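Pilot study result, target chain (346 residues):
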Amino acid sequence: MTASAPLAGIRILEVGTMLAGPYATMMLADLGAEVTKLEPAGGDISRQVSDSYFASLNRGKRSIRIDLGTEAGDARLGDLVTQSHALLVNLKPSAIHRLGLTYDALRRWNERIVCVAITGYGLHGGDDPAFDYVIQAATGIAALTGDPAGPPTLPGYSSADNSTGLAAALGLLAQIVSGRGGQIDVSLYEVMLSQLNYHAATYLNEGTRPHRRPFGAHSYYVPAQLFPTADGYLALFVTHDGFWRAFAGEAGIDGFATMAERVSHRAEVLAVVTDALATDTATNWERRLAPLGIPVAAVRELPAALDAPGAPVVTAGERRLVGCPIHVSGYTPRYGPAPGLGEHGR
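Predicted structure:
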């Protein structure tokens, strides 16, 4: 028997643009929520990027054109709010307040409406531009990324937007479960500082400043980083002594039996591991080490990952996309196409 969608019957309005907000509501739509995008005459700006870009963030939603801030638009918004459980918006704080997209402004139509605001620095944090890459720079992520001998580096995808979208979806659901309406305030800045958890805690409590290490090495675990091999790079992540014993046995390395030894002799450990891994290719090391239960993977490009057996690629309308990462027992998402602008206006 197929289970009903976990969020069946939940109606969510989205005033979203580009990535963080639309990604949040797409995850909710994948789980069965009815998500309606409220778009201006020109539509979400991401429609101008590419059809695949827009579809990757908006599959399975509805679209209504609405001129917020006008008398007719505000009346339509009020009607929609009376029928909905939540509204999620990602705009500048001034625009959110000006358009009346807060709980204080909307509660007159629905006391139990949950209003989620995604902004750069908080709903009361000002209007400074706060795109993903700017937040990565401002929170120390760029300074921690890349080779120590080179410049700061940005990850090759929108980590701040995606992470904030997931946090916003969590906050929205938490407030719905509470049975109360209210305002949820989620900022890119705070989400990314939160994701620096142990780095931040070490500095706040011990005064230790984090810094970049070669090949993205972990601050606490050794060896845990990328390594060059005879062909390609290998990610090896040894977090406890059992992993080390299995790896060392296969690689022919003696000594450094405890984590404390490996941390205190980091340079020596990395040197012997690098020499050992240089004797074979990354894919061969993966084949040798993975059956031993060691966390390991050859570095691959995205096409190789998407073409691999079991990759979560789905079809939504005419587009092939990566499916929902949340798997609920007995439930299979129905992936609908991204909506045309104003397609569901009636």
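One observation from the pilot: The chain has 15 helices and eleven strands. A full batch analysis is planned for the follow-on phase.
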